[in-house]
Amino acid sequence: MAAAHVLVFPFPAQGHMNCMMHFATGLLGAGLHPPRLGDAAAALAAGSRRLHFMSVPDGLPDDHARAVGDFLEHMELLRTKGSVAYRVLLTSLVRAGDDSAGFPPVTCVVADLSIPRLSIPRLFELGELPFPAGGDLDEPVRGVPGMENFLRRRDLPSFSRGCGNPMLQKVNEDTAHSRKARALVLNTAASMEGPALAHIAPNMRDVFAIGPLHTMFPAPAAAGSLWRADDGCMAWLDVLPDRSVVYMSLGSLTVISLEQFTEFLHGLVAAGYPFLWVLRPDMSAALREAITAAGDSKARVVEWAPQLDVLRHRAVGCFLTHAGWNSTLEAAVEGVPTVCWPFFADQQMNSRFVGGVWRTGLDMKDVCDRAVVERMVREAMESGEIRASAQALARQLRRDVADDCGSSAAEFQRLVGFIKVLSLSMADTGQ
Predict the structure, then answer these.
(1) In the chain, what are the domains?
(2) Closest C-alpha to 200, from 211, 208, 191
(3) Which region, left, alpha or beta, applies to residue 288 given φ > 0 means left and ψ of -120 to 50 means alpha?
(4) Cys bridge to 52: 35, 108, 217, 345, which one at CB 3.0-4.6 A?
(5) Residue 425 has pLDDT above 60, yes or no
(6) PANTHER family, alphabetically (predicted)?
């Protein structure tokens, strides 16, 4: 059989790189060759001769901030300038591999640049999209199978709001392109999103639900990280009582105004619990105010945290999060109740599932008021019902990734076999 050589191509953002690093680690364990296009995690690359890192230019200068406000520009440059360099590299890797690293030709590509949202074309057909910016956000959305009873306009991706949003049209176009793929690989578990998987499957040639990847295939904490985590916060947590701390992190892209920051701060202080707050380097102007307002004994503010370790720590009682998918999965696996304040993209939908389907936390979308922050943080910290739901989901997810009987573990093995068959067919056809 021809050697299977997988090219893993993440979108160049922190959350995407995190997920793909765990995926590449899993492929290594299965005996495949998975090089990954990117600059980070050189330490992991040095530890394995079968993991090779390469990069392609995205069309922006090295010192460009690549902020969320530039997202459409970044996407367009990746589609034009970046794709040219990518195709040149891919062509060389498919034809000859990488002789200098001893890699065989590439036989399979796993890319996350085109994310299918398979219901969006149908929502256009039904007239559910686009809806006006001033429309009723609590209007039910009826066109998504399995979600008729709980989905509202405000739960759709943020780019759905307002007619003429270019991002909405782009996602609609990308959905058609995604259906041409040989398979769709999802970092989820059947126990979390069974109805959604059942809806997706008939629209794709094959679907693999192989998550949560970070639990199945742990990678070094620093691998893929754009910022250095402040490990000192772990010692601060060590001296605090069990389930007494609110951990707050809004991820790698969320932008908050000074007014929103002030509401969060006053709400956290009023809730009365110690809190660990991640304020990225680009938010660092607020650090002194946060520490002064709360006092050193009640607050710890860091530019970046070792999130997996924090969520596993006994002192953490709840997680105030942007509801990015990585953060949502990481909290779910650890059974930590969440308060969700989504910013954009998939986060609106994720937060609705947390509050309205899994019941593992509270959905605070579209609100940034100190009284609401205080009330929801207290409820997440103190509700036995929410904690029980969170812990029940955590137990199920651990069963899902168990090697002997887990559905995600079995799906990953099926994926490995699928990739090997692709490699053999390429060798047989000379493609």
Answers:
(1) 1-114 (3.40.50.2000), 232-398 (3.40.50.2000)
(2) 208
(3) alpha
(4) 35
(5) yes
(6) GLUCOSYL/GLUCURONOSYL TRANSFERASES, GLYCOSYLTRANSFERASE
Residues present in the chain in total: 431
Residue 15 is given by DSSP the state H
43-52, pLDDT tens digit by residue? Answer: 344 445 567 7
pLDDT in tens, 30-73: 878 665 444 334 434 444 556 777 878 777 777 766 665 566 66
Burial bucket for residue 361 (CB in 10 Å: 0-12, 13-18, 19+): buried
**Residues 6+ away with beta carbon under 8 Å from 244:** 273, 274, 315, 317
Q: Which residue has the tokens 């887990």?
A: 406
d(CA 41, CA 61): 21
Cα–Cα nearest to 377, from 412, 345, 337, 427:
337
Task: Report the amino acid identity of residue 306.
Answer: P
CB-based contacts of 242, cutoff 8 Å, min separation 6: 314, 315
Tokens of 222: 């620093």
**How is residue 155 annotated by DSSP?**
G
Which residue numbers are catalytic? 16, 112
**How would you write 238-296 as a 3-class SS string?**
HCCCCCCEEEEECCCCCCCCHHHHHHHHHHHHHHCCCEEEECCHHHHHHHHHHHHHHCC
